[in-house]
From TrEMBL:
Single annotated GO MF: GTP cyclohydrolase II activity
GO cellular component, one term: cytosol
Active site per the UniProt annotation: D317 (proton acceptor), R319 (nucleophile)
Residues annotated to bind Zn(2+): C246, C257, C259
Binding sites annotated in the UniProt record for GTP: R241, L242, H243, S244, S245, Q262, E283, G284, R285, T305, T340, K345
Enzyme Commission number(s): 3.5.4.25
Protein name: GTP cyclohydrolase-2
Highest taxon listed in the record's lineage: Bacteria
HAMAP family xrefs: RibA
Required co-factors: Zn(2+)
Function: Catalyzes the conversion of GTP to 2,5-diamino-6-ribosylamino-4(3H)-pyrimidinone 5'-phosphate (DARP), formate and pyrophosphate.
Domain GTP cyclohydrolase II: 196-360
C-alpha cells in the first residue's frame, strides 16, 4: 500500500477521507459564502455593493460591463451619479493612460456599447478628456475588480458611489452587500482552503496503477485534480508536473499553444518514473476560457499573447499556486523534481515551502501556429530553455 493509502482494493469512504470544512467559525463561513455570491451576482449581470469599513465612506455599487444589459444599465443610472467605469492598470495603459487602476467618469446616459468598447474593445469612442480626468481607485473599487477577475469576467465595472442612507433601499432591492475588509481578506491567496473530496483508481493508457484525487477550494468551489502515478516514494524528490488547464490544447490538440504536447510528454515521463500530475483549473493563465478566446481574436489582429491579455485588463499571468502547494502537502510531498519551463512555478512552490530539488525541462516542437506564442513565453515571460537544472543549494 502506498504511504497515501490510495491503492487499497476497496477505496475508503469519501466522507472519511474528506477533511472537515476548515472554516468552523461562523462569521468567516458567512463571509466566504457572500464572496461566492458576489461573483455570481456579477456573472448574472446584477449589481453588488461594496461596503468600506470607514463608516463615513460612501457605499460602492458595481456591475460588470461584460454581463450588463441595457435595461440594467438604465436601472443603475437611477441609483447614483455620476456613473464611473472602473478599469485595471493594464487596461488603462492599453488605452494610452497611466498604468494604474482608475475610475473614469462616464458621460450622462452613457450607452452600453460605449462602455463595452472602453472595457475591452478599442479606445475609438473614448473621450480623451475622460482618460485625463481618470481618478485613482480606492480599496472598494480594487476589491470589486478582483472579484470580477475571480468570476473570470473581463475586469471592467460600472460603479456609482451611494450614501449610506440608501442601505434600506438596497436591502429591499435584494442587492448583496459585501464588506470590503472581508473581500480583501478572502481574496488573499494565504486564506485559501482546500478540501480533499474524493479519490478513485483510474487506469490510464500510459500506466494502469494511477489514482485521481479531487480537491475543491472552499470558497469559489474551483476543483483541481491530482493524478498519482503508481506508489509514491517520498524519500526522494517526487517528479511533479503542475499543469494549468487548457481545453483547446489538452483536449483538442490545438496548435495555437504547446500545452497538449507538454501534457502528453509529462504524462509519459510520470508514467515511466512515477510521480504526480496536478491538473489545475487555471484556463487561459487564470483568465478563463472566455477571455482566452477573446485574447486569441486580439492575437489574430496582431497582438502577442501578453499584450492581448493586457488589452483585456489582465496581468501577464493571473495564476497563483497556493492550491498546488496545499495539494502537495495533502499528498505528503515536500521535495520534488518539477517538470516545467516556467520560473514562476518554481518560485511559487519554493515560497510555499516545497523544496524544488531539480527542474526538468519540458519542451515541445513548435509549429507555424504557436511559434510566436512559444517565442513570447521565452523572451517576454522569461520561460527557461531545454537545459535540466539541479536547483539544490540555490
Ligand atoms: N491568456 C492566454 N492563455 C493561454 C494562451 N495560450 C495558452 N494559454 C494558457 O496558458 C496556460 C499554460 O499552462 P502551462 O502549460 O501549465 O504553463 P506554462 O506557463 O506554459 O509553463 P510550463 O508549461 O510549466 O513550462 C494554460 O492555462 C493555457 O490555457 C493565450 O494565448 N492566452
Ligand atoms: Zn494551451
Amino acid at each position: 500500500m502506498s504511504p497515501l493509502g490510495l491503492h487499497r482494493s476497496s477505496l475508503p469512504d469519501v466522507s472519511a477521507t474528506s477533511a472537515p470544512l476548515p472554516l468552523a467559525d461562523d462569521a468567516a463561513w458567512r463571509a466566504t459564502v457572500r464572496l461566492d455570491r458576489a461573483q455570481l451576482e456579477l456573472k448574472h449581470g446584477r449589481e453588488l455593493v461594496l461596503q468600506p469599513e470607514d463608516e463615513s465612506a460612501p457605499l460602492l455599487l458595481v456591475a460588470a460591463v461584460e454581463t450588463l444589459s441595457a435595461e440594467r444599465l438604465a436601472t443603475l443610472d437611477t441609483w447614483g451619479h455620476p456613473l464611473r467605469l472602473l478599469l485595471t492598470g493594464e487596461r488603462m495603459q492599453s488605452l494610452g493612460g497611466t498604468a494604474a487602476p482608475a475610475a473614469l467618469r462616464c458621460p450622462p446616459n452613457v450607452g452600453l456599447q460605449t462602455l463595452q468598447h472602453w472595457a475591452a474593445v478599442s479606445a475609438d469612442v473614448l473621450d480623451p478628456q475622460a482618460l485625463r480626468d481618470a481618478a485613482p481607485t480606492g480599496p472598494a473599487m480594487d476589491a470589486a475588480l478582483r472579484i470580477a477577475k475571480r468570476a473570470r469576467l473581463t475586469p471592467a465595472l460600472v460603479a456609482a458611489e451611494l450614501p449610506r442612507s440608501l442601505a434600506p433601499r438596497l436591502a429591499a432591492a435584494e442587492i448583496l452587500v459585501l464588506p470590503v475588509a472581508d473581500a480583501e481578506r478572502l481574496l488573499e491567496a494565504a486564506t485559501l482552503r482546500l478540501q480533499r473530496v474524493s479519490d478513485a483508481r483510474v487506469p490510464i493508457a500510459a500506466r494502469e496503477d494511477c489514482t485521481l484525487v479531487l480537491f475543491r477550494e472552499v470558497g469559489g468551489g474551483t476543483e483541481h485534480v491530482a493524478v498519482v502515478f503508481g506508489t509514491l516514494d517520498t524519500q526522494r524528490p517526487v517528479p511533479v508536473r503542475l499543469h494549468s488547464s487548457c481545453l483547446t490544447g489538452d483536449l483538442l490538440g490545438s496548435l495555437r499553444c504547446d500545452c497538449g504536447d507538454q501534457l502528453g510528454r509529462a504524462v509519459s515521463q510520470l508514467a515511466q518514473c512515477g510521480g504526480v500530475l496536478l491538473y489545475l483549473s487555471q484556463e487561459g493563465r487564470g483568465t478563463g476560457l472566455a477571455n482566452k478566446l477573446r485574447a486569441y481574436r486580439l492575437q489574430d489582429g496582431g497582438l502577442d499573447t501578453i499584450d492581448a491579455d493586457r488589452h483585456l485588463g489582465f496581468r501577464d499571468d493571473e495564476r497563483d499556486y497556493p492550491a498546488a502547494v496545499a495539494m502537495l502537502q495533502a499528498l505528503g510531498i515536500t521535495r520534488i523534481e518539477l517538470l516545467t519551463n516556467n520560473p514562476r512555478k518554481i518560485a511559487a512552490l519554493q515560497a510555499g515551502g516545497i523544496e524544488v530539488a531539480a527542474r526538468v525541462a519540458l519542451t515541445a516542437p513548435t509549429n507555424v501556429h504557436n511559434a510566436r506564442y512559444v517565442h513570447t513565453k521565452r523572451h517576454r515571460a522569461g520561460h527557461l530553455g531545454s537545459d535540466n537544472a539541479p536547483l539544490d543549494g540555490q
